[in-house]
């Protein structure tokens, strides 16, 4: 699917800088697109790569119709090299393979474009970081590097100094919400996803796709209907704990969603309902606020934080959630 720079939501400053440098023939040999996750860095990198090698640019953007654009759109351009993290980050063998590829000229494009994704995950590996630094210090004349990294990532100053840094920012909430609505998502759920993701369209879409909001809702609605002293409450806890544990790599995200729920209840008790995030569950808040005191809500957030720490220590997932849910419904 063809993605143009103009179709990317927000990031006007970044797009303007890139098109201006391209039009002036002053494209840098290395860029670092840096900002929060899920705000369009990778999408923008692909669109800019497409523009760089477009045969007939139109209005500061790739045409989408030339042979180069069509190859970029299909993901089959031979001169676009994408290096993605494998596991915890990019591995040294990937950088060695890249260096070997760079000894040869581009197959057909004016510039070979190398996209190195989530570079902040790689900086913990000194061997990989130093090898990458050497590549950036001595780049082939016909190659442009585009690195992407989170704003909080510990990227080496030596790598930063060799890249043109392009900042990316959280998207305006109204734009994210409207885009999610255009995706076919209910308005209240879209607003909730926007608030939870803090303006990250990518994260909002991921939360919806993984159905974490659905699981959060099921947990909270069942929490409302049962108590620890009821036999049905025991069965409910075991069932929900099994579901939560099966979320696997998303369990931390699920715990964050539950933390936000209890945070919203605290805001309502403090007379600040306009600051809540869980808009889609606002109809349940009065009942929960009557059920627990402010101190009890604080205690429940602490319990969720303890569950976070237990999961980091590789404790049994099902057991962690069983204990947590029994405590939360008290």
Write a structural description.
- The chain has 330 residues and is an alpha/beta fold.
- The protein folds into 2 domains: 163 residues, P-loop containing nucleotide triphosphate hydrolases (Rossmann fold, 3-Layer(aba) Sandwich); 119 residues, Zinc Finger, Delta Prime, domain 3.
- 53% of the residues lie in helices and 8% in strands.
- Strands 2-3-4-1-5 form a 5-stranded parallel β-sheet, with helices on both faces.
- α2 runs antiparallel to α3, α7 crosses α8 and α11 packs across α15.
Q: Please give the oligomerization state of what you see.
A: single chain
Range of helix content: 40-55%
Query: Per the principal axes of the C-alpha atoms, what is the gross shape?
Result: elongated
Q: Order of strands side by side in the largest beta sheet?
A: 2-3-4-1-5
CATH architecture annotation name of the largest domain? 3-Layer(aba) Sandwich
Distance between the termini: 51 Å
Number of helices: 15
> How many β-strand runs?
5
Would you identify the regions where 5 or more consecutive residues have pLDDT less than 50? none
Overall pLDDT: 91
Biggest sheet layout: 5 strands, parallel
| Class of secondary structure makeup | alpha/beta
- Classified by CATH, the class of the largest domain is Alpha Beta
Q: Write the CATH fold name of the largest domain.
A: Rossmann fold
Give the CATH H-level superfamily of the largest domain.
P-loop containing nucleotide triphosphate hydrolases
Strand content: 5-15%
Radius of gyration from CA coordinates:
24 Å
H/E element order:
HEHHEHEHEHEHHHHHHHHH
Number of domains: 2
């Amino acid at each position: 699917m063809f993605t143009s720079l103009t179709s990317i939501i927000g990031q006007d400053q970044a797009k303007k800088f890139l098109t201006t440098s391209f039009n002036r023939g002053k494209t840098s040999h290395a860029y670092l697109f840096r900002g929060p996750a899920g705000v369009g860095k990778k999408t923008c990198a692909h669109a800019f790569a497409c523009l760089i090698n477009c045969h007939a640019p139109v209005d500061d953007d790739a045409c989408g119709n030339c042979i180069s654009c069509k190859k970029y759109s299909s993901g089959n351009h031979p001169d676009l090299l994408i290096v993605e993290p494998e596991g915890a980050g990019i591995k040294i063998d990937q950088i060695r393979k890249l260096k070997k590829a760079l000894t040869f000229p581009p197959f057909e494009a004016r510039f070979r474009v190398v996209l190195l994704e989530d570079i902040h995950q790689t900086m913990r590996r000194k061997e990989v970081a130093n090898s990458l630094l050497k590549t950036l210090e001595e780049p082939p004349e016909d190659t442009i590097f585009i690195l992407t990294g989170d704003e909080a990532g510990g990227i080496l100053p030596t790598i930063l100094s060799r890249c043109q840094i392009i900042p990316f920012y959280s998207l305006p909430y109204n734009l994210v919400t409207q885009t999610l609505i255009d995706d076919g998502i209910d308005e209240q759920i879209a607003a909730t996803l926007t608030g939870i993701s803090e303006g990250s369209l990518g994260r909002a879409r991921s939360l919806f796709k993984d159905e974490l909001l659905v699981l959060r809702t099921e947990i909270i609605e069942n929490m409302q209907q049962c108590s620890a002293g009821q036999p049905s409450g025991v069965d409910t806890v075991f069932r929900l704990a099994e579901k939560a544990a099966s979320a696997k790599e998303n369990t931390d995200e699920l715990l964050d969603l539950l933390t936000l729920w209890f945070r919203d209840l605290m805001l309502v008790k403090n007379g600040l309902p306009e600051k809540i995030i869980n808009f889609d569950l606002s109809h349940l808040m009065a009942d929960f606020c009557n059920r627990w005191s402010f101190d009890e809500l604080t205690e429940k957030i602490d319990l969720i934080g303890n569950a976070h720490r237990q999961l980091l220590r590789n404790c049994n997932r099902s057991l962690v959630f069983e204990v947590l849910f029994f405590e939360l419904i008290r």
